[in-house]
Amino acid sequence: MLVILQIILALFVFIYSNFFIESLNRVFIFKMIAINLFLFNVRSMLLFILQGTNRIKEFAQITMIDKILYIVLIISFLFFDVREFKLLVIADLMGKFISMIYAMYCCKDIIFQKINLFYFNIREAVRNINVGIKLMFANIASMLIIGVVRFGIERTWDVATFGKVSLVLSISNLMMIFINAIGIIMFPILRRTDDRKLANIYLTVKDFLMIILLGLLIAYFPLKVVLSAWLPKYAESLVYMAILFPMFVYEGKTVLLINTYLKTLRKEKLMLKINLISLSISILLTFITTMVYRNLDLAILSIVFLLAIRSVIAELYLSKILSISVSKDVILELLITIIFILLGWLVDAWYTVLIYTVMYILYLLLKKKDIAKSINNVRILVKA
Fold this sequence. Notes:
Elements: H1 2-20, H2 24-52, H3 56-79, H4 85-106, H5 108-111, H6 122-156, H7 159-191, H8 198-216, H9 220-230, H10 241-244, H11 247-264, H12 268-292, H13 296-322, H14 327-346, H15 352-366, H16 368-383
Helix pairs in contact: 1-2, 2-4, 3-4, 6-12, 6-13, 7-11, 8-11, 8-16, 11-13, 12-13, 14-15
């Protein structure tokens, strides 16, 4: 059923590109989007099955095959001085295709069955669609929160400016690869956990996660020096990295912890509501910063602001469900993030790393009791 639906969607995009788009490059891009729709969505379905059945090893292998093959092809193109963007797109699709084939092999006991063994349960399908469609729109809205701002920047400023902003966004998003990998493991574990333990586990994981994420912000200072020397043409855009680098703090907490918990507690509707509110604010801020004031600094700053707002709203909702208090932590995290941005943005000196490190140590001292409690909780969980 999914395969048939994806083929229909891909054909629709193919037909649209042939009749309504004039630029040959854009036609190519739309056709590649159509192929990507099929490959990505079919593979995603198989990955969800593996994740839901706790076959994390196969899940990780499929994801790695995609990324490794793509990286190998890109490095090969660069080595042979190939600069054709079409080949880069095809390389990405090849990675997805090979990984999809392997995913089909891993799920062969489900896929390769006789037709007469298949049956269609309308009630179950409706129930699954009802849950899935909320998650789908929640994920789309989540992607558009940053996507709308990027679109506004691309439309208001030139391609060079957009490319520089995209570079900094890509650097920040690299951190999310590792965070997403942990989230993949957490969901099936939480699904099998007693509901009475969820609140305690949340506070424990949150304490350790925020210590790591806020600690990783220290890496910005040496990373900026290295990238400025390696990419001197992009030195100007790396100033924006001070604003965008904390992205992974709020995005990481939302993706790894908050969204995982909301899905575990079957709060898909709440996820959708929060993401739609954040998307509405994103559209409003993008219009103000890119159309009214035409201020690139404010447009970039709005990205972190939006992710922080979404994270705070979602966590406050979740804290009510779990009957826990997170207000102190939210304020502390906001303060240390604001201090980091101000240091990176306004002060161009080597001692900024020392100032932030001192602030980070103060944060750890303020959280000393919570950290000790979390360590004790981990010991209890390990013994259990």
